[in-house]
Amino acid sequence: MDTKPEFKPGTFLYAGKASALETVGLANPRDWSPTDDDWKLPADWKGIVREGMAERLQRFRSFKLFMDICVRCGACADKCHFFIGSGDPKNMPVLRAELIRSIYRGEMKTAGKILGKLAGGRKLTEDVIKEWFYYFYQCTECRRCSVFCPYGIDTAEITIIAREILNLLGTNIDWIASPVANCFMTGNHLGLKPHTFKENIEYLLDDIEEYVGVKIEPSFNRKGAEILFVTPSGDVFAEPGIFTLMGYLMLFDHIGLDYTWSTYASEGGNFGFFTSHEMMKRLNAKMYAESKRLGVKWILGGECGHMWRVVHQYMDTLNGPADWLEQPINPLTGTRFENAASTKMVHITEFTADLIKNNKLKLDPSQNDHIIPTFHDSCNTSRGMGMLEEPRYVLNNVCNNFVDMAPQVIRENTFCCGSGSGLNAGEYLEMRFRGGLPRANAVKRVHEDHGVNMLSCVCAIDRAVFPALMDYWVPGVGVCGVSELVANALVMEGQGEREYNLRGEENPSYKPPAEDEASAEAGEEGEE
Amino acid sequence: MIGFLFSLVAVLVLVGIALVGVGGLGLKVLFGVIIPYAAVLTFFAGLVYRVVDWARSPVPFRIPTTCGQEKSLAWIKPNKIDNPCSTGAVVLRMIFEVLTFRSLFRNMKLDYREGPKIRYSSEKFLWLFALMFHYAFLVVILRHLRFFTEPIALWQQTLEHLDGFMEFNLASYAIGLPTIQLSGLVLLGGVTLLLVRRIIVPGVRYISLAADWFPLFLITFICLTGILARYVVRIDVVKVKEMAMGLATFHPVVPDGISVWFYIHLFLVCVLFAYFPFSKLMHMGGVFLSPTRNLVNNSRAVRHVNPWSYPVKTHSYQEYEDDFREEMVEAGLPVDKSLEEAAAEKAAKEAPAAPETQETEEKRED
Cβ separation of A293 and B61 shorter than 8 Å? Predict the structure, then answer.
């Protein structure tokens, strides 16, 4: 506990910019860096921390209980991807929690105040705050440890609250604070203004027209649509997320869905979740507000991890009840989504699985024959929701070669990408590669044993961070969203020759139409 | 290591206190009546206080850790225990958690290989030791109830009979030992294994605090003194029962002729009782309250209410449209207020400037 963290490049994140903090009214906006000696904490920072802790002990039974009941059995110790990848003992979930438990004992408990270290207590110093900053931004809130804890102690919960307290002092990171400010003002983390958001999607529509041969014309901010669709803005912006987004566009067109995009509720993700419960509520309010303004019946959500923990476990509590919405019914299959009766929000993968089960999609899985995909369960959709079968059902219907990784590393045992909860910043690459090692290691195994060449997922952060992680640990494995594979297999009405995939690459699984088969075969033989 | 030594010394000092107190100073009433009453009172009062204190903090969000398939589409089989979809399923999950240590059973161990390659294998020792320890402790406690009840109920006799099935061990007849009660030995074995594990596994040793060593040593010594009293010193059980019945009926008596070893055993048990509510041993009560285990995973189907929810400042669509109206119109996006309407409104508002700010502030309040 006495070893101080060293702020070496690659292992810490840049400080939150003053301008971002000011935009959303967060505490103590200032210019500072974690490498500074003086972190310019507020004058009464100790009082703020003590009060902040006391208030949260009263508000969260989870926090209070988790401060008290750990027996330090060590079951969680080797379950954390950051511990596995870094070997740093403070990355054992039990010790990560002890970083704050020791202050709880030393500052708030009689035994700890008197006996100090002997009772596991510590005094609050600036070094403690630096250590908290280092290690609570070195936890991705993935909840893997809580699966194995005999009392269900959830380090994510402790990290969430520790970050709330750090935010009271203005010690936060730019990769979270700036997206939060962007999302507040423009509706999405990337700060895409309404026209840019629309234009980006229009570019993708052009690509679909070019590679698939169908012209799709979705609507934006349209009042009276049946369904509002919200997805993480990462899908609008960067590869390979944009191919997933093309997948959504094609799927909705294929089934003739009456839906609209919104430039205002243009973000499914919620970096407010990584700031505080309050900020999560402030950012998430847009989805329901927009659904009311547009008068839709229900909301469909795109592929994202933490977005879905927020939507599933928090949204209704935070922003509900959304009385103006109706219980979601799939307009094509008539399926009533009983599990979303109150939030009125359905996951795209649940929706797609339902469509496939009811034979509403015309699919040609052989279009994906050159792809041997495995599936990465996102931390949040598996351990904070339990969506395990739906993506596998979809994958098995749109591909012929799906291979699962070992049971120890999938479903509720899944390993984090190593970059979740707002840690996917460029300056953090070393730690991200370390934290991503267990996941990469498992992919490597199926890559070597089964020739897996594609890591599919249902999470925008995964899509953003896995390409670099795979290139580093398992070269030769690509990354895609499940909806991209769905779109590859979709037989669109009036489509042209699918010689190219959505990425504009020649599709090795493309088979020329039947009438040309003879000549094509002759041509192939000729080549050989 | 300081915690390790401190705890060992602390327990030895406790043994010494009882030894001197009863053996040297003859404070039998203190050690046989006053301390036991105080300890039991502290135990129950402390237990209730701690649980009530936890329960006073609300559960603002529905945050079960889902360890299996959720209940979603009708044709997908949910995992009712690990992802409970009803109160009954939660009860089942808690029963498995509390009675079989289900989460601990999942435990696996990793080892690094060259490469770097990581392998995960099943690791059931912690689960096994914990199960041994807790069940043996339960049986020992239930068996000790025979000191406080008259007549002995059938279940107590049955339990003792089962626990003493090693009676076939003729050797113990031969040397005249009382029936060997398995639970005591298993308890000592379990606590020893847990102690040894904490010492030899480097990671676990690293995370251990005095608060982890102390109860282990305390329980080890309770076992040792208990076994010593029963099998070696052969304390006068009839007199002990007389004393126990006195305590139970609130007519305390302190019979003469009970060995000091009994008092040491009793004193350590009293310390354990009194220490319990203020220690990590409260995991016994805490496990039932854990929000990641005891909640139904139905937060999309049924709204969970946060008792301390408060309104927050958001950025409304109207404010957003005001920020970007021109760009939106240019990009062909529909707007709630046309450019002309917005301009007219702005002009009208700019004339009497004062009330405008207040109005937008109100709008911002969600």
Answer: no
Do B235 and B346 lie in one domain? The reply is no
B106 in contact with A, Cβ within 8 Å = yes
What is the residue extent of each domain of chain A? 18-172, 180-488
Query: What is the spatial distance between Cα A408 and Cα A418, in angstroms, rounded to a whole number?
Result: 17
> Cβ of B107 under 8 Å from any chain A Cβ?
yes
**Distance (Å) from the alpha carbon of B314 to chain A's nearest alpha carbon:** 5
For an interface test with B, which of A316, A343, A354, A414 has the most B Cβ atoms less than 10 Å from its Cβ?
A316
Residue count (chain A) = 528
pLDDT tens sequence across B39-74: 999 999 999 999 999 999 999 999 999 999 999 999
Clarify whether residues B148 and B257 are in a common domain: yes
Residue of B nearest to A285 (CA): B314
Q: Which domain holds residue B338?
A: 317-364
Q: What is the pLDDT of residues A21-63, one digit of tens each?
A: 999 999 999 999 999 999 999 999 999 999 999 999 999 999 9
| Cβ within 8 Å of residue A461, ≥6 positions away | A232, A234, A269, A304, A305, A306, A417, A419, A420, A424
Whether A523 has a pLDDT exceeding 70, the answer reads: no
Q: Which of residues 276-305 of B touch A (CB under 8 A)?
A: 278, 280, 282-283, 286-287, 289-293, 297-305
| B168 in reach of chain A (CB within 8 A) | no
Q: Which residue of B has its CA nearest to A69?
A: B283
- Contact B209/B2 with Cβ under 8 angstroms? no
Indicate the pLDDT class of residue B1, thresholds 50, 70 and 90.
confident
pTM of the model as a whole: 0.93
Contact check, Cβ <8 Å, B334/A143: no
Asked if B56 has any chain A CB less than 8 Å from its own CB, the reply is yes
Q: Nearest-CA residue of chain B relative to A198? A: B331
Judge whether A311 and A288 are in contact, CB under 8 Å: no
Mean residue pLDDT of chain B comes to: 91
Q: Hunting for tokens 């020329």 — which residue is that?
A: A512
Query: Same structural domain for residues B281 and B338?
Result: no
**One domain, residues B260 and B359:** no
CA of A209 to nearest chain B CA: how many angstroms apart?
21
> A155-168 and A126-136 helices cross at what angle (nearest 10)?
130
Q: Give me the pLDDT at residue A527, please.
A: 43
Residues 6+ apart with CB under 8 A from B143: B156, B159, B160, B163, B181, B183
- Total domains, chain B: 2
Shared domain check, B331 and B208: no
CATH of A18-172, one of 1.10.1060, 1.20.1050, 3.40.50, 2.60.98: 1.10.1060
